[in-house]
Specification:
Strand content: 25-35%
Order of helices and strands: HHEEEEEEEEEEHEE
Structural class: alpha+beta
Oligomer: single chain
Length: 268
């Protein structure tokens, strides 16, 4: 091999391969990847929102069922007890349910004539709701429920139910009278009950106690028929927790016919 002259260019042998350049993602590839990631993230958020909404709906329905069950059960227990008195060898209906007109601490006058067990009023104000008062005599041994959740202990009790509104919230309230003395403050029982509607069952022929007509409180008062009432048809109107959903009504109703046990089978 001939030696190269000084200053001559040095020739390099050919390898037959090109050195590969370092590669990367193009702008289009990055954009597509970001769009796919955003699409998947949107799907996850949508599923999470649906789960959250379903949970909220189920919780609202469960609370509604609890409130309705409690309110209707309490009203049923109290109304069924209307006119009751213990030990007929020592007490009479006249002594257990004397004529009495009194005003609640909230200012509602409730007139009871002798032997009258139930009384009602239609309220044309806001909220538009009926109110109902029921009285009976009981002892501690009978363990009969009063509207404030306690039990009677040897007296005549008047249980007064009505609805109030505070802001956008509605409440079922109870005021309790023991003998002639009203409790100082009402008891708040249920939230979300917007209206009580009560129709009173009577027999217009006067031949027996089988109900043939349901009348409003105003009609019963006008006809002087409170002593003839043998049952109450109670409808509770609650706010619908699903009202925001398409096709859902603003309220839902529950109805029950409740008989006064003291009047069952009693001759008129």
């Amino acid at each position: 091999m001939k030696p190269q002259a000084p200053g001559a260019a040095v020739s390099r042998p050919r390898t037959g391969r090109r050195i590969a350049r370092e590669g990367g993602y193009s702008l289009i590839e990055l954009s597509v990847a970001i769009l796919i990631a955003l699409f998947l993230l949107g799907g996850v958020l949508l599923v999470e929102q649906d789960v959250h909404t379903a949970y909220g709906d189920q919780s609202g329905l469960a609370q509604l069922q609890d409130e309705e069950r409690f309110a209707m059960s309490l009203l049923t227990e109290v109304i069924q007890s209307g006119g009751h008195f213990p030990n007929p060898t020592q007490n009479t209906i006249d002594s257990a349910l004397p004529a009495l007109t009194s005003s609640t601490p909230q200012g509602q006058s409730i007139p009871f004539q002798q032997e009258q067990a139930i009384w009602g009023l239609y309220n044309s104000g806001t909220p538009v709701s009926d109110s109902i008062a029921v009285r009976f005599m009981t002892t501690a041994q009978e363990n009969m429920t009063l509207c404030d959740g306690t039990t009677g202990a040897g007296n005549t009790y008047t249980n007064y139910f009505y609805v109030t509104q505070t802001g956008s919230n509605y409440y079922l309230n109870c005021e309790l009278q023991t003998g002639t003395a009203w409790a100082a403050s009402p008891v708040q029982l249920v939230k979300g009950l917007e209206k009580i509607s009560v129709l009173y069952g009577i027999n217009t022929t006067g031949t027996d106690n089988n109900v043939d007509s349901y009348l409003t409180a105003s009609q019963v008062t006008a006809g002087g028929q409170w002593l003839s009432v043998t049952s109450a048809k109670v409808t509770l109107t609650f706010a619908n927790p699903l009202a925001a959903e398409p096709g859902q009504p603003a309220t839902v109703q529950f109805t029950r016919v409740i008989s006064l046990m003291s009047r069952i089978g009693v001759a008129p």
